[in-house]
Amino acid sequence: MYKLFRFVLFQFDAEKVHYFVMSLLNKIHGFALSRFLFRSTYVLEDPKLETIFLGLKFPNPVGLAAGFDKNAQNIDALADCGFGFIEIGTVTPKAQPGNDKPRLFRLKADQAILNRMGFNNDGVEAAIAQLKQRQNKQLIIGGNIGKNKWTPNEEAVSDYLLCFEALFPFVDYFVVNVSSPNTPNLRALQEKEPLQDLLMQLQEKNAAQTAPKPILLKIAPDLTDTQLDEIIEIVAFTKIAGLIVANTTISREQLLTPAAEVEKMGAGGISGKPVTARATAMIKYIHDKSAGTIPMIAVGGIHSAQDALDKLDAGASLVQLYTGFIYEGPALVKSINSALLKRAV
Question: Which domains does the chain carry?
Answer without folding.
Answer: 2-344 (3.20.20.70)
